[in-house]
Automatic annotation (TrEMBL):
Region (Disordered): 358-421
Chain residues that bind an alpha-D-glucoside: 124, 126, 143, 150, 332
Organism: Crypturellus undulatus
Protein name in UniProt: Calreticulin
Keywords (A to Z) from UniProt: Calcium, Chaperone, Disulfide bond, Endoplasmic reticulum, Lectin, Metal-binding, Repeat, Signal, Zinc
Residue spans of biased composition, Basic and acidic residues class: 366-408
A GO term from the CC aspect: endoplasmic reticulum membrane
Disulfide cysteine pairs (residue numbers): 120-152
UniProt superkingdom: Eukaryota
Biased composition regions of type Basic residues, renumbered to the chain: 409-421
One GO-annotated biological process of the protein: protein folding
Family: Belongs to the calreticulin family.
SUPFAM superfamilies per the UniProt record, alphabetical: Concanavalin A-like lectins/glucanases, P-domain of calnexin/calreticulin
Signal peptide location: 1-33
Length: 421
């Protein structure tokens, strides 16, 4: 790189200036971002066990294994922690040097691949303080931040953003949809000192806002003025009963009527069963309770704007974004069908660094991963078609053999009959 720079810099003095600039950039570049935690499992083997601790809270917790999965973009770079047992709870964590994000941006990022096309299970991570007992990590362990996708059935397909404030978890009020296509996706949460946040999926922003507005940390700044009541003449009914609509004379019919076609059973004993009565059946003419049709209210004035005042109980807190002794990242999840792979964990204070890291990891392998998956699907379809053709060929062969056998048997029977005649 230096030789190339010298060849194209245009003059000794310019080359020297460029060399100094490159040296300065190299010196300042790594210091630009504080990387608190970074895990890509590039060393392979069993070394990751030294950095990650399995919880012993329950004896039957699911086991993680290190693998790139069935399809991948790179067999080494795409290795991550994969859930391996169905219908299990999982709990594992890794510790790093404690830090505080006070006055700094906090970026939490990782990749998730639900290659099993998960039907119900978590894909989120949790951030803990340094005092967590890792061997007893469970769903009851108090965390600072919970972030990531959660899928269960057709209703739950969302990204969790839950922050702890005064020992109570506060979930985001916005619905953020997660990815469900079975490929690897990059999830990023950015929390800034100005109390704003961003959520990115695949390095594209999908949600943003103010922590105080989008999570119920504090009392509201404004409340309805309790001294003011809605005027009695204010009509906020959108629709009203039509005064010209009259109930039809033949409307009122009983819901149940006596079935006069029923006959008293021959073995009915009044002394034992009581006096026999005709049974009641649903009246086909019953039309329910009559209600007049609805029409637009000509006096509708809209929703009454209740005057608001400053909430006397509101107390601003400019530190709701910050945490002390951030020191552990963990996976504490339940999965019905296992197979999810977690990789490319990153905790830093630099949004740009995280974006570049995402491009250099997920960004470079996502294309080859998809190509491999498509190729595998096509090969599987070809195998299925070949197996199906083989099945029908064998079935047809057996049918032909049976018909030949039947013809031989018929010929033998005819010959025997001729001899008997």
């Amino acid at each position: 790189m230096a030789a190339a720079a010298r060849r194209g810099c245009g003059g000794a003095r310019a080359c020297e200036a460029l060399r100094l600039l490159l040296l300065l950039g190299a010196a300042l570049g790594p210091a630009r971002a504080a990387v608190y935690f970074q895990e890509q499992f590039l060393d392979g083997g069993s070394n990751w066990h030294k950095r990650w601790m399995n919880s012993e809270h329950k004896p039957d917790l699911g086991k993680f294994k290190l693998t790139a999965g069935k399809f991948y973009g790179d067999p080494v770079r795409d290795k991550g922690l994969q859930t391996s047992e169905n219908s299990k709870f999982y709990a594992i964590s890794s510790r790093f040097k404690p830090f505080s994000n006070k006055g700094k941006t906090l970026v939490i990022q990782y990749t998730v691949k639900h290659e099993q096309k998960i039907d119900c299970g978590g894909g989120y991570i949790k951030i803990f303080s340094s005092n967590l007992d890792q061997k007893n990590l469970s769903a009851d362990s108090q965390y600072y931040i919970m972030f990531g996708p959660d899928i269960c059935g057709s209703e739950t397909k969302k990204v969790h953003v839950i922050l702890n404030y005064k020992n109570k978890p506060h979930p985001i009020k916005k619905l953020i949809r997660c990815k469900v296509d079975g490929y690897t996706h990059l999830y990023t949460l950015i929390i800034k000192p100005d109390q704003t946040y961003k959520v990115k999926i695949d390095n594209e922003m999908v949600a943003s806002g103010n922590l105080e507005d989008d999570l119920d940390f504090l009392q509201p700044r404004k409340i309805n003025d309790p001294r003011v009541k809605k005027p009695t003449e204010w009509d906020d009914r959108v629709q009203i009963d039509d005064p010209d609509d009259v109930k039809p004379a033949d409307w009122d019919e009983p819901e149940y009527i006596m079935d006069t076609s029923a006959q008293k059973p021959e073995d009915w004993d009044d002394s034992v069963n009581g006096e026999w009565h005709h049974p009641m059946v649903k009246n086909p003419l019953y039309r329910g309770e009559w209600k007049p049709r609805q029409i637009d209210n000509p006096n509708y004035r809209g929703v009454w704007p209740h005057p608001q005042i400053d909430n006397p109980n509101y107390s601003p807190d400019l530190s709701i974004y910050s945490y002390e002794n951030i020191s552990i990242i963990g996976l504490d999840i339940w999965q019905v069908r296992a197979g999810t792979i977690f990789d490319n964990f990153l905790i830093t204070d630099d949004e740009e660094y995280a974006e570049d890291f995402g491009d250099e990891t997920w960004g470079e392998t996502k294309g080859p991963e998809k190509e491999m998956s498509i190729k595998q699907s096509e090969e599987e379809q070809q195998r299925d078609r070949a197996a199906e053709e083989k099945y029908f060929q064998e079935k047809m062969k057996k049918k032909i053999e049976r018909e030949k056998e039947h013809r031989r048997e018929r010929a033998v029977r005819k010959a025997t009959k001729k001899e008997e005649l």
